[in-house]
Amino acid sequence: MNFHSLEFLIFLPVVFVLHWVLPHRFRWALLLGASSLFYFWWNFWTGFLLVGATLVSWLCGRGIARSQSPYTRRALLVLALITCLGCLAVFKYAGFFASLAGLELSLQIILPVGISFYTFQTLSYVIDVYRGQGEESHFGYYALFVSFFPQLVAGPIERPGRLLPQLKAERTFSMENLSAGGWLLLEGYFKKVVIADGLAPFVDQVYAAPGEALGPEIVLATVLFGLQIYCDFSGYSGIARGAAQLLGVELTENFRRPYEAASIREFWRRWHISLTSWFTDYVYIPLGGNRKGLPRQVVNLLAVFLLSGLWHGAGWTFLTWGLIHGLYRAAGAVWEHIRGIPEKECRPWAHIRTFLLVSFPWLFFRAPSMADVLTLLSRLPTGWGGAFPALAGTAPLALSLLCLPLAERLSEQRHQRNWYASALTVFCAVTAIGTAWLAHLAGGGNNAFIYFQF
């Protein structure tokens, strides 16, 4: 079920009440059952893939922890990697790999929601056990770690050492958690429903007809898509963190105002933080990181960002998006090597330059195909001297942009001592969310979270 569906608006309060009413020893079973219902609601049969990945990774972890043989431990690690990554390859990349080989699949494969996220979560557990960082002997708690419903579908990608202890700890209800969770939910829904969904119609209109778009429209739509996907994904993460906080669980902060970054490296420390840290710990550092000289560091950076692009989607557009960011980071590493020290980027133009550099690859990320990318690029020089048809009637667009600074600081209002101001903020935000949500439903649009496709 979607976070913005009526079912979820009933589901979450019921789980919240039952969670705090039940004794601690029964809560894991409640949350596991609720998480299973939450996921199986999407597609009953793909839910069994989640169950299979959970069971195989747990059994492999148990075997690794108990075996004294290096060969057995390595074999179980390889088995877990092949099983989890194999499922990901079949369900997400089979068509792409077949096209590379000149083949065409006649069978339409359904992409299980959230497979990229829970696959990485199971892999982090098995790899951590192999590294000697401890196992989870209780299958129920491990299954809950993999399928915990707030972060199951689109993250943040949690580590076992951070989430499992919280799930097993005896939590007590507190007004602080209720307040913090409520404000995070409010911020998340505001970003998604009011801003991201408000920007979507213009962006979709331009990218749906690349051959008719004019240069200014393409530039504006690409910049706005960067804001749309940020509000959409950080909105999801805010809702996920808020829902977990209501249950006394603190999830990883996944976004930290990335468009305020002054360099590409800083941007990736602020954007999709859980994925960036996952690739750093499980790919970049094992490859050698920056410890084996500049040429090797450049290769490692390119490899990581190409994998990041492929993780986002099976297509040349996503690979190109990852490659561009990899080239950015590689150029930054070379520049820092030449200078001898990291560049201090505190000037306003550094923030503008970073925003523009980040915005350009979004064109590849948003376009349906490389053919559309080439069409859009060829249309960039056109239309700079006339009217722009796609810009007509963009009052909702302007309103969405004006709301962005407010949304960025909405959850900070929980520290507000003025209860009247807080109540007024809640009333205005809820009214805006409700109005935007009803307007979108009346228009018959599909406002699913963008990252559900990954």
What does this structure look like?
It is built from 18 helices and no strands. It has helices spanning 6-21, 24-40, 47-66, 70-100, 115-130, 139-147, 149-152, 160-168, 175-208, 215-246, 264-270, 273-287, 294-312, 316-339, 348-366, 370-379, 395-408, 419-442. The model has no long low-confidence stretch (mean pLDDT 85). The chain has 454 residues and is mainly α. The chain is globular. α3 (47-66) packs across α6, α13 (294-312) packs antiparallel against α14 and α14 runs antiparallel to α15 (348-366). 70% of the residues lie in helices and 0% in strands.
User: How confident overall, as mean pLDDT?
Assistant: 85
Task: Enumerate how many helices there are, as a single number.
Answer: 18
Q: Using DSSP, what is the number of strands?
A: 0
Q: Tell me the series of helices and strands, N- to C-terminal.
A: HHHHHHHHHHHHHHHHHH
Distance N to C terminus: 16 Å
Helix content: over 70%
Major sheet: none
